[in-house]
Inverse folding.
């Protein structure tokens, strides 16, 4: 994963976001980590409940002198069926140690929705059906 992240780090650091950290600058103990920040609520048509959407924020320590920092959002894999924002902890820690602010978010799962229930859940999540030719980018 090191090569992949090194390329991402340099690509994400524009001319305004100097210095670009490829090697860790902060230790894990120096990071500011805020867990379970509520960023929204979403109704699930699968289990017919409201869900609280949470995110964890990882940032360089308080001694970071930069007035602004590059930020990334980490969304875990799992095809909207499984997973947790905690899956991003290792990557979020590694990026924050290099000077990035990282938000790792929970999102609503579709569960075992099939057929009409899956279509209804997708519509409530995205505002309409999602297809390769549907004009979504």
């Amino acid at each position: 994963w090191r090569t992949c992240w090194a390329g991402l780090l340099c690509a994400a650091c524009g001319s305004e976001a100097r210095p670009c950290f490829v090697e860790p600058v902060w230790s894990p103990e120096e990071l500011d980590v805020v867990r379970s920040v509520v960023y929204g609520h979403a109704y699930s048509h699968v289990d017919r409940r409201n869900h609280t959407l949470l995110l964890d924020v990882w940032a360089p320590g308080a001694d970071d002198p930069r007035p602004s920092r590059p930020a990334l959002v980490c969304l875990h894999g799992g095809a909207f069926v499984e997973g947790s924002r905690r899956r991003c902890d290792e990557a979020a820690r590694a990026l924050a140690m290099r000077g990035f602010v990282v938000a790792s978010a929970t999102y609503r799962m579709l569960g075992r929705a099939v057929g009409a229930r899956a279509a209804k859940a997708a519509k409530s999540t995205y505002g309409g059906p999602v297809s390769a030719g549907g004009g979504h980018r």
Observations:
- Residues 1-7, 14-18, 128-137 have pLDDT under 50 and may be disordered.
- The chain has three helices and four strands.
